[in-house]
Write a structure and sequence with these properties.
The longest helix is centred in the C-terminal third of the chain and has 8 residues, at 222-229. This protein has one helix and ten strands; from the N terminus they run βββββββββαβ. The radius of gyration is 20 Å and the shape is elongated. The chain has a ten-stranded parallel sheet. With 236 residues, the chain is mostly beta strands.
Length: 236
């Protein structure tokens, strides 16, 4: 039901208890009925590109979601705590909203491999985000982050971390030692120097530092030079 400019979800949809995939993207929706909680066989749900100001807590009843939940490009200011019940979900996209925080319950979504929350108004992440032990990609461009929780050091499966266009004054210390981190995007922050532990990230392949306040040219910075020598591309 993608791009049909429906304005509202037809009531008949809620009777389709056999649905596995429901795509309601780009339909000018302003609300979604709590009846959505009855679609217990859904594995993927797309509510992106609408005008939702909230989503019903009944989304937490969709515990069969094993694929993707798209809530991006709406007008959401908060997410229901009930989303934490979606423990089998693998991809969550809540980007391009007006979120000032992510609920702590989100850290119970143990199967997540990809979390996208770009272009929101986040000033902090949940303290226990490190509980997302299977997370491989974390996309946080365009928020207001000044630091990362210490628990992020437990994201041992993390491969890609996007922190572009935030307010970070330094490369976050919790990243030290992440064994599988390959790409780290720190463009457009307020970073002035590079920590000595960066070359010890064993899998880092690309470090993007453009549009920061580096005091030393990367070509002369011993940390950047050490990264380049071991094969990591440093862009600044």
């Amino acid at each position: 039901m993608w791009r049909r400019r429906l304005g509202a979800v037809p009531e008949s949809v809620w009777d389709r208890r056999d649905l596995r995939v429901l795509i309601l993207a780009d339909n000018d929706l302003t609300d979604v009925s709590p009846a959505i909680g009855g679609l217990g066989r859904l594995t993927t749900l797309d509510l992106g590109h609408n005008a939702l100001t909230e989503v019903p807590a009944e989304l937490g009843e969709l515990t069969g979601l094993t694929g993707c939940l798209y809530l991006h490009d709406n007008r959401l200011t908060r997410l229901p705590d009930a989303l934490g019940r979606l423990t089998a979900l693998r991809l969550l996209n809540v980007g391009d909203n007006r979120l000032t925080e992510l609920p702590d319950s989100l850290t119970r979504m143990a199967a997540l491999v990809e979390l996208r929350s770009q272009h929101n108004e986040l000033t902090a992440l949940p303290e226990r985000i490190g509980d997302l032990a299977n997370l491989r990609e974390l996309w946080l461009k365009g928020n207001r982050l000044t630091e990362l929780p210490a628990s992020l050091s437990r994201l041992r499966e993390l491969r890609h971390l996007e922190l572009r266009d935030n307010l970070l004054p330094e490369v976050p210390a919790p990243l030290a030692g992440l064994p599988l981190l390959r790409t780290l995007d720190l463009r457009g922050n307020r970073i002035g120097s590079l920590p000595p532990w960066l070359p010890e990230l064993p899998s880092l392949e690309k470090l993007d530092l453009r549009w920061n306040d580096l005091a030393v040219d990367p070509g002369e910075d011993p940390v950047a030079v050490a990264l380049e020598r071991r094969g990591c591309v440093v862009v600044a």
